[in-house]
Design brief:
elongated, 3 helices, Bactericidal permeability-increasing protein, domain 1, eight-stranded antiparallel β-sheet, alpha+beta, single chain, about 210 residues
Length: about 210
């Protein structure tokens, strides 16, 4: 049996907290050599389409806690915008005179060290994974991915005009995302959900509906 649930309009406070946690997660540990600076999350949009959960097993069901195994799938309209700097010289282009941005005044892919700013837009996420989901009135939400959830993500960057760089960046960023889903996202979801637990009357992460 599968079901969908209402996807709320998340508040500004939720976005601020989520951006801070995602930025910390993306800068945790060793980054790919091509990344020459911190990765900053500058925009987060949760979209309008919720994930879908298919029940595979229910291990516990009480008034205060629920535990089950689900198959989670997502193909929605959420997106993330990142900003960082990249070192272009390790890419070893066969044609060093290719323009990165197109046109005669674009930057060149040089053999010498070259650090340039880069913006990335991550969209069209497709996720599919078995998850263990625990919902507790006292402790919040705990979610653990049993398999690699990332099936697809479209990554558009400043350097899309050069196919070799675009493919390289796609591969490197996908690797960072897979690590984040596996190691960091469960903790982020848990910490954000604890804000809901603290609220007695109104969840602080839901946008307030207008009154009157």
């Amino acid at each position: 049996m599968s079901f969908t649930f209402s996807w709320p309009r998340f508040s500004d406070q939720f976005h601020a907290d989520a951006i801070q946690m995602l930025t910390a997660a993306l800068n945790k540990g060793n980054k790919p050599p091509v990344i020459a600076d911190r990765i900053e999350v500058v925009e987060l949009e949760m979209g309008t389409q919720p994930p879908e959960l298919e029940i595979r097993d229910i291990g516990e069901l009480t008034v205060d806690q629920f535990r089950g195994i689900f198959r989670l799938s997502y193909s929605g309209d959420a997106h993330i915008v990142l900003r960082t700097k990249v070192q272009a010289n390790p890419l070893n282009h066969k044609q060093p005179d290719i323009h990165l941005l197109g046109g005669s005044r674009g930057m060149l892919a040089a053999k010498q060290p070259l650090v340039v700013p880069m913006n990335l837009r991550l969209s069209h996420f497709k996720l599919n994974s078995y998850v263990v989901l625990v919902v507790s009135r006292q402790k919040g939400i705990t979610l653990v991915f049993k398999t690699d959830p990332l099936q697809n993500v479209d990554i558009n960057s400043t350097f899309d005009s050069i196919a070799v760089i675009q493919k390289f960046i796609q591969r490197e960023i996908e690797g960072q995302l897979r690590q984040m889903f596996r190691e960091d996202l469960p903790g982020i979801i848990h910490r954000l959900s604890q804000q809901w637990v603290k609220a007695k009357v109104e969840a602080p992460y839901l946008s307030k509906r207008p009154t009157g």
